[in-house]
Design a protein that fits this description.
Order of helices and strands: EEHEH
Strand content: 15-25%
Oligomer: single chain
Number of helices: 2
Helix content: 10-25%
Bound molecules: zinc ion
Number of strands: 3
Strand order of the largest sheet: 2-1-3
Shape: globular
């Protein structure tokens, strides 16, 4: 399982975190959460989950800059998002 940042056009924070086995599964989770398939953009991995969540994630939201950190292996914030 990994965390994915799913871009959702028109949503408050521009996307959401899904915990899934693959990018395709993360996309499917966003659709199940009620988002229109046509509004879903890129799906990239996240080092830590970020709010909002698209499915049940048993972790606190560590990442505050998901747009910056998506696709990276570690948090890009000057201070680690875990601090
Ligand atoms: Zn981060």
């Amino acid at each position: 399982m990994a965390f994915y940042w799913v871009e959702i056009k028109g949503s408050a924070r521009g996307g959401g975190t899904a915990q899934a086995d693959s990018a395709d599964a993360a996309k499917a989770i966003a659709v199940q959460a009620g988002h229109d398939e046509s509004a879903i953009g890129r799906v990239r991995t996240l080092p830590y989950p970020a709010n909002p969540y698209l499915n049940e994630i048993g972790w606190p939201d560590f990442c505050y800059q998901p747009e910056t950190c998506a696709g990276k292996h570690s948090c890009q914030a000057r201070r680690a998002c875990t601090e």
